[in-house]
Design brief:
globular, alpha/beta, single chain, nine-stranded mixed beta sheet, about 15% strand, TIM Barrel, about 30% helix, about 300 residues
Amino acid sequence: MAASRVVALLDVVLGYDCNLACDYCTISPEMRKRAMSTERVAREIDRAASRGFGDVAFTGGEPTIRADLPALIKLAKRRGFEHVKVASNGLRYAHAPYLDHLVSCGVDRFNVSLHAMNDTDYERTVQLAGTAQHRRLAIKHLVDRGLDPTADLIIKTDTAPIIDEWITSLVALGLRRFALWLVSLTDHNAPNTHQLPSISSVVPHVLRAFDNARRGGYEVTALHIPRCFVPGYEEHIVHPGADLVTVVTPDDVFDLKDSRLGGGVKAPACSGCTFESTCPGVRRDYADRFGFSELRTVYTRS
């Protein structure tokens, strides 16, 4: 049997500005001023295409506030990228013609950050009144068009206990793919240590979500949780940087596997673990907050 083809992804952080101001956002006011020019993004797309990259993602900040986003998507398709993803808060998708335009330009993968479960908590989290109704309409437009978006849900101290309930409410709206991200204590959000729960406290809620996904036939994956925490559920874990991903930002170009988003910190107890060769460990901000005691108690040797 032939080996499956590994497709490299170009992840383009167009800029750090956003139309929201989430209370857990890592982007500082100074960072919001930084963005890539259209010309530089075009050069990076051309360079990646010449190197054989197959997929591209446009992220931010908030990519949909960029007037040049449709043109950049068209360029990526002309340069031969098979899949084009946009990772967004999705509010502009409440305007159906805009969503349809992105699809006509070539977007075939959508990730939408949903921030909180109910309308009140959502508007409190994003710090902008009147946005909850736009979020609901955006979800409806994505589902009605069969675009099968991935809902990005942030695991924080307040959302961890309701993560399964949150997913269930979104399944009722027609969503079928969910990615769980552990909140980050970097840059602007570094002082808010109370937001980051321990992985061991999160695991029971995440396992319940995994079980219900198996029964319900939908997809739930978690990032930033080492596989040793979830024996029997390892296939639900996705590690950032495990795939070939090059990230281009206004400040730098790097491989995701080498970034702080991909983990990279391991405990002495990780030596000899069944997943030692494939697990990046925990993120530095997590290790600084909680240390390694959890890993010492739950890791498994081969």
